[in-house]
């Protein structure tokens, strides 16, 4: 991500908010003359290893040409997707737009092969002085009115107004949604694609990198996890030989790493990848190892440290019991991560265990596991070979229980 702005435009606060990093602790890396301009600083925050941020301060004479040259060099076809710029935010204080102090020559950055969004920052600085007569005094409507005004100045350039103040949280979420749209659109000509085909673009290197690095939209995380699963192990889960002969511990271990990796939560101690957390999830789904379970045995898991339930030692076979457990592990883990992500700050064992305890004793888990057990028990074995019924059920359950819109 390249973020360019005049000084004091709030770009560092914006990066901190969207990516959940602390740019004040990020040291700019020395860029060699061959791959960056001296006026473009490269940062790789230690608290989000998927983010490479480039900052360029200034719209003075020659600055835009510096940015353009840097982008053209950075995105040369000889570079891999991971080395290229994935998007550009041009940050402009709202007051500069309102007072006409912003140089519209920024539009020279259009058409250089990188998705670009104009970001009008510090909306909170002008909001108290905005007449309440605008849009009837409603905050959301007034923000929209100003956004439309800014858009009118710059034609069809994607744009968003933002503030990092908590009361304007929805504006940050809207910026992330707009950035998501332009990155996906840039990955391929999407005008003729269905919504399902658009979603599958998340497995493209650039869109996946963006989906994983941002820490604002749970919907984006979930959709990315779904598409990674669809392209790998969820596909033909009941009929393929991907896991044949492996222990169930090995099977869910691979799946666990993929899902946790896509969510990329701020987890300084690596708890979400720890054996202890995997054991907890394994105990959550243990009731799916039997065809039915009484209400009295729907209790919270009490795993012994360093051990796991017996089912982890079983060899994977295409049978209902194994499939039930793997499906339950995927969906339960996704729901736990979705809940954990709602709490700000670093992931802690106590925070995660609180979420798991609440889930373990909830009617939501009971309903979910009953639905999994009922579905797997009624699908004829031959159906596993005809179509990806199990994978589609996993996706349906995640969308249903994470309260996502149906995008099939």
Automatic annotation (TrEMBL):
<dbReference type="InterPro" id="IPR027417">
    <property type="entry name" value="P-loop_NTPase"/>
</dbReference>
<protein>
    <recommendedName>
        <fullName>G domain-containing protein</fullName>
    </recommendedName>
</protein>
